[in-house]
Design brief:
This protein is mainly alpha-helical. The chain is built from 22 helices and no strands.
Length: about 500
């Protein structure tokens, strides 16, 4: 159990940086929703969706490949080859996309602002160069430095956004502060703040970045590519599943361009209310990926993976209840100036459950990464992407952003089930799937009970009290069943 303890401890550190950072960033949602109408906010959502797609293309699976081969090869050789490759490719791709910035801006229906696209490209380039240095920190078990840099990145980002969009924008005309703000840039300040934060991050990682020799072992590089190229499909497919709905709304929604951007903005703002479960999944992945590869050589590795899955699902269940039972509180994080955002609250429970399925899939994906069957993982992801595109294509014209939520849960449910079935065939792991399914079903039932009761008893205080009671009842139920398991965890075990 010591290995699980170590993973739990690292997840706490990664989680701290993720939670603190995302929380500060998350507080920007009501600010941006107040400053910009839903259509403008939709443009921000779309631009950063582009960045997410490009991040996958620019990194082309080398992060996972680094963990995979560092477990069996000389770490220095792996790092040298991977870093040299990513520096060369990032330079080439950045130049190509900068030359295409105007056509891209026209496609996104912002033809007068190609500089937005250019700035986003600089974010992608800087973040790509930081990927392997961050991976090196994770591989070497240094979550504290990782957490410090991530937190500082967000502090700089949030601080600059507040400086430009609040302090400078509201400053008296003719003052020095007012001269720092231009209406022509507008929402571009959100992007520029991110550029500055990414640049500082890369500077702080200089020691790790330059801890390599500029060389490529061609034979070994080919092995890296053979393993990693399907992960490009996995990553791009994952981004399709995550973000393609924003683009499809713009093209398929039967209204004006502004109405379509409004739909995208409402959906994007409510999507962020799944923040708790997203933060936990992110923190878990940061610690779990190097952990899974290192653990693969240990005795009873499969049993360890099964334990990890159990703790993961339980944590996700609490995240689910913590959001869906208290939506009357969470909705204020979207601000009060534009109440149209609140009309999208109905998608939040669907998205939370979808994210839980996605998290389970991440756990299950260990089998194809350990058995070098990354191409199979690519096919699973493509299948999910096909489901996403098909459902959105059929339903967006009639359901708007609700179609996006339905497509998301269907996609991740499909990927989870298929990955489990194939994984049990090629790399069997004794997951307690009956118990885990029961936990998830109970959470859905508790949410349904809460919705039914509060429909007839319309009282904010009663709704919150009932939410606390239902969450507490689930906690007592789980802790009673899993008491022995929780006693072996750090921090939590001291109180059980």
């Amino acid at each position: 159990m010591s290995s699980v303890k170590k993973l739990a401890g690292q997840t706490i550190w990664y989680g701290f940086s993720s939670i603190f950072g995302r929380f500060l960033n998350y507080l920007l949602t009501p600010l941006l929703a107040t400053i910009f109408a839903s259509a403008a906010y939709g443009k921000i959502t779309t631009l950063f969706a582009i960045a997410a797609f490009l991040n996958i293309l620019f990194t082309y699976g080398l992060e996972t490949a680094y963990f995979r081969f560092s477990a069996s090869e000389d770490e220095g050789k792996v790092y040298n080859t991977a870093t040299t490759s990513i520096i060369i490719s990032t330079t080439v791709l950045t130049v190509i996309f900068l030359l295409l910035s105007q056509p891209i801006a026209s496609f996104l229906e912002i033809p007068t602002n190609p500089e937005y696209v250019q700035w986003v490209l600089w974010i992608v380039a800087l973040d790509t160069l930081a990927v392997l240095p961050f991976s090196k920190l994770r591989h070497e078990g240094r979550p504290r430095k990782f957490a410090f840099i991530k937190i500082l990145n967000i502090l700089i980002n949030v601080g600059l956004i507040l400086f430009f969009l609040v302090v400078c924008k509201e400053a008296q005309q003719g003052t020095i502060l007012a001269s720092f703000y231009s209406e022509k840039i507008g929402l571009g300040y959100v992007i520029l703040a991110n550029v500055a934060a990414s640049a500082v991050t890369l500077m702080l990682l200089a020691k790790e970045l330059f801890a390599f020799r500029f060389q490529i072992d061609i034979a070994f590089w080919k092995r890296l590519m053979l393993y990693s190229w399907p992960l490009i499909i996995v990553g791009l497919g994952g981004m399709v599943n995550e973000l393609i709905d924003r683009f499809m709304i713009l093209k398929l929604y039967p209204g004006t361009t502004e109405e379509a951007y409004s739909q995208s903005g409402i959906y994007g703002a409510n999507y962020k209310l799944a923040v708790l479960i997203v933060l936990f999944i992110q923190a878990f992945r940061l610690g779990a990926e190097p952990f899974f590869f290192k653990q693969s050589t240990q005795e009873n590795a499969q049993r360890t993976y099964a334990r990890v899955m159990k703790f993961f699902v339980i944590a996700c269940c609490f995240c689910f209840l913590g959001v869906v039972l208290f939506l009357d509180i969470w909705k204020y994080f979207m601000g009060r100036s534009h109440p149209e955002y609140w009309t999208g609250l109905k998608v939040v429970p669907i998205l939370m459950l979808a994210k839980l399925f996605l998290g389970v899939y991440y756990n299950l994906s260990v089998w194809y990464k350990l058995t070098n069957q990354t191409l199979t993982g690519a096919w699973i992801t493509l299948g999910g992407a096909a489901i996403t595109v098909l459902i959105n294509f059929l339903l967006i014209p009639s359901l708007g952003y609700m179609a996006c939520a339905i497509a998301t849960i269907c996609c991740y449910g499909f990927m989870m089930i298929v990955s489990y079935k194939l994984g049990q065939k090629y790399y069997p792991i004794p997951y307690a799937w009956k118990k885990l399914t029961a936990y998830v079903v109970i959470c859905v039932i508790l949410f349904s009970v809460h919705e039914l009761v509060t429909h007839f008893v319309v009282s904010l205080w009663f709704s919150h009290l009932l939410g606390l009671i239902l969450t507490g009842a689930f906690a007592l139920f789980v802790f009673r069943i899993e008491r022995k398991e929780f006693q072996n965890l750090p921090v939590v075990g001291k109180y059980l």
